[in-house]
Amino acid sequence: KKTSKMENLEVTLKEEIGLLGVVGFSIGGIIGSGIFISPKGVLQGTHSVGLCLVVWVLCALLQVFSDMSTLELGLIFRRSGGLYIWFLMVIGPLMAYTECFLYTFLNSPASGALQSRACSNYIMSIFFTDGCLPPHLVVTLMAVVVLGTLCIINVYSVKFAVDTSVFFMFTKVFAIIVICIGGIIRLGQGYTENFKNAFEGSNTNPWELVTAFYAGSWSYGGGMGMVFVYEEVKNPKRNIILGYIISICIVASVYLLA
Fold first, then answer.
1. Whole-Å CA distances, 141 to 33, 117, 128
2. What is the dihedral of CA 134, 154, 248, 35, to 10 degrees?
3. N or C: at which end does the chain have fewer Cβ atoms within 10 angstroms?
4. Calpha distance 187→104 (Å, rounded)
5. Contact 233, 22 (CB under 8 A)
6. Beta carbons within 8 Å of 48's beta carbon, 6+ residues apart
7. d(CA 82, CA 22)
8. Cα–Cα distance for residue pair 93/245, rounded to 1 Å
9. How far is 60 from 213, CA to CA, in rounded Å?
């Protein structure tokens, strides 16, 4: 009897992530180093402030279409694991293994390395001022520390990882809000020349416009982190969709202000 009971037990993950956690995951995944880098590329590709702002709005809409399709697919196959699980259930183990291999050994490590190195550069800029660049080895070692710390947090507890994500969501939004406030103050002081004839000189070169869209879309990417923790979301049909809509509205508004 004990054996049969054990065989019938199904191992499942705890549903611990609520609406705020979904919003934190989404905003935390979207807002990163991109918004501090992409505006230059978008403006260079559009050549005008007016067209630049239009591109930022269109990039948000395009990202919504993409992300909502993926989120809906996740609600159909409500399993944590993202694309690997979907490939396994629909296409088969070979494609699932290929996707998992590429993500595990190429995509994810490269992305983690770039993000941790960007974080390391920001940290080192506190200690190396007056145009003095930190040594390459110091930046690399700090990046390893950052990456190792995040690994420990995720292994230790899902809830702690969610709380950490929410915390960093607020800090990143706060940093961008500081930038926005500075710009608003400048506008209040009369520096409005960039908004006069805002569309004058707008670029019509398709290639440069494509690069502008690419730069803008890069800043909106990252909101699909929820596909890896679907089983841990409370009331997913409500919280995932509503949480994402809230997140993308907040992010788009903040990006436009920035």
1. 19, 9, 15
2. 0
3. N
4. 47
5. yes
6. 198, 199, 200, 201, 202, 203
7. 15
8. 33
9. 10
Q: What's the CA gap between 118 and 67, in Å, rounded?
A: 25
Q: Are 109 and 117 in contact (CB under 8 A)?
A: no
Q: How big is the chain, counted in residues?
A: 258
For residue 70, give the 3-state DSSP assignment: helix
DSSP 8-state code for residue 132: P
**Helix (H, G, I), strand (E, B), or coil: what is residue 12?**
coil
What is the pLDDT tens value at each position of the chain, 258 positions in all? 555 544 555 666 676 678 888 887 788 778 776 777 788 889 889 989 999 999 999 999 998 888 888 888 777 777 767 778 778 888 888 988 988 888 888 887 887 887 788 888 888 888 887 777 888 899 999 999 999 998 898 888 878 887 887 787 788 778 888 988 999 999 899 888 888 888 888 888 888 899 999 888 888 877 776 777 777 788 877 888 888 889 889 889 988 888
